[in-house]
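Progress report, Aim 2. The chain analyzed during this reporting quarter is listed below.
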Amino acid sequence: MKPTNKQEKEVNKICCPKCKSKNFKKNGKRKTENRGLIQRYLCNNCGYRFTHDEGFFRMRNHPNKITCAIDLFYKGVSTRKVQEHFQAFYPHNSSHKSIYKWIIKYSKMISKYTDKLKLVVGSELQVDEQEHHRLGNKNWFIDAIDTETRFMVSSGFYNKRGSQEIKVVLRIAKYKTENQITLVQTDSWMAYRKCLNKTFGLHKRKALSKITHRKLNASKGDGFNCRIERLHNTIKERTKTIRGFHGCLDSANAIMKGLEVHYNFIRKHQSINCCPYELAVPELKDKLGVNKWLGLIELAKLPSK
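Predicted structure tokens for the chain:
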């Protein structure tokens, strides 16, 4: 029986994790309690026996269950409520701590992949920061959004709001948008101009400027950065139910990175009537499938070219 096109594509993704060779053959199956039979392979070059890691290596729960938990969490359901939900449908239930670990692990995994994507965006970028609380202290979420596609281009969660933190977010935004941005709009905070000078090559002399920096001062009646402020309201809808972050800075940043993924790839945007990635990364439109969390995890685990 000849393999289908889908099966051929799956085989093309596989390579030996030890020598990176694609010269292998099937070599039995491994039986698992909750994930069924998993195909084993034997490398013909180095003799290494392996299974294809699609992002769930050594995980004791089915990928559909794990991605369902992540999706429910970012739609506003707490980890304990997700645990109660699974209790009715899965005999092998998971604790709320395991669900929290899944969220942190896969948010980090996917964001490493999405932070390297090249985007098709408009000419205007809006940058702003939002205050959050972690362990009773002020923390800051700094992000940048493309006003045309509504794609959150870059973001970061930090324990302070300084030039170094803003430059990290702007460098990622510049890498992903390349030379498409001609206008960056911010509030009137003075640190933005210095950071834009370092990252985008903004200079005081107009003849040397690669981009234009527009500052809005709401107290003087200049208005607001409406696109990014609307995005911050969406973020608040989820974070206000958490009542502040209670873990380390790294886990809080992972949760916010997951929110970025949910906003860009999962949640349908009302103003553009589609997910932002469909406009900003059109080549992924046919690759993610129905379960987009699962599709993103599989893409994140593909060997880099």
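DSSP finds ten helices and eight strands in the chain. The chain has three domains: 5-51, 56-117+290-305, 124-280. These observations will guide the mutagenesis work planned for the next reporting period.
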